[in-house]
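idk why but the lab printer keeps eating my pages so im just putting this in chat instead. protein + pyridoxal-5'-phosphate:
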Amino acid sequence: MRHFTFINEEMHAEKVSLKEIARAVGTPCYVYSSATFERHFSVFKDSVKDIDALIAYSVKANSNIGILATLSKLGAGADVVSGGELQRALTAGIPANKIVFSGVGKTKDEIEAAAKAKIKIFNVESIPELYAINDIAAQMNYLAPIAFRVNPDVSAGGHEKISTGKKEDKFGIAWSKAEQAYAVAETCSNIEVVGIDVHIGSQIDHLEPFEKAILKVGSLIKKLRSSGHNIRSFDIGGGLGIPYGDKSIIPPNPANYGAMVKRLTQELNVEMIFEPGRMISGNAGILLSTVLYVKKGEDRNFLIIDAAMNDLLRPALYDAYHEIEPVRKNPENSQIKKYDIVGPICESSDTFTKSRELPIIEQGELIVMHTTGAYGASQSSQYNTRPLVPEVLVKGNKYEVVRKRPTINDILKSENIPTWLI
Ligand SMILES: *Cc1c(COP(=O)(O)O)cnc(C)c1O
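predcted complex ->
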């Protein structure tokens, strides 16, 4: 069910008019629907209800603390990939014993912070990292719970930039070295082996890669146990794809995914950990933008909008498709035109779409880019000294700004001209 729909010919987020938000907050801005977050979380939870499971929402997909608090209330844990994300999760009220820490390059400070918080598991990606965690844990008189992230050499993911589970990728312990890694871990006095972890990619649109990875890891778990390692948890990462409206990709539904995981893991007697990101937040957000100019090129029509690639990087980075619609509802028989929709940034890649068929759109109109709740605001930057895009969270007929737009002065305040020039 979609919570961005037309009421009186005008698009709303739940019960709140987007025109009203644009007037009050300004554009561009992200608008999120609490009801969608709640629904997606409960759909996922339902799909794994027969499994001993922790759902550790992948914070990097949308890391706003207003969103994390919304999910925390529903019982979500968190998968974090930096000290900053750890602090966000804790600030939003997610209990430390539901937080797992992933990532190939954890720094000493980040490891210390996570150990101090007593998180559930460190997902360890290399032997040098294992030693670093062991050393820090020893200094803190702490037993660090770890799982190795192993690389199952399975090809998956909607785009080469978001595939992570092939042997040439930088992630995880090479499959052939996994057993050796567990043997090394047993020699570390301040490490407690508790599990195993994989994450094979993102926007995965069929179940086979997950099945392959689970079967491989399942047999590895049996081997590891027979060598005396106490594997109690199996983290299968995130990666479940979602529909973006381009029709060509129909991702598996969460119920089938859950049934598949149950079927392949029920004999293993492990706690399953899931790290869904996009599946929870993708469809819960839109990017709201104003058309600044309509420009007629030689043989193309350009809509120049006030959102740009610094606000939403996915089209430039992954050639991503987003459904685009005007906020004002057009009659069924409206005349259709083809538009290239571009932002104001001085890069040709600041293009959201080319030759998109849309009803005639005029200067000053509001448009939305759908399914931008994941990897939208969390990837935004201030390139071209464009202030970070604000975020608005809607709940029924209420809304609040959960990240405000900095002023240019806010941006300049953190910089300085060196003393030798003054
Ligand atoms: C990015 C990431 C996820 C989330 O991936 P989605 O495709 O958004 O579900 C989960 N786990 C790890 C380790 C990640 O890097």
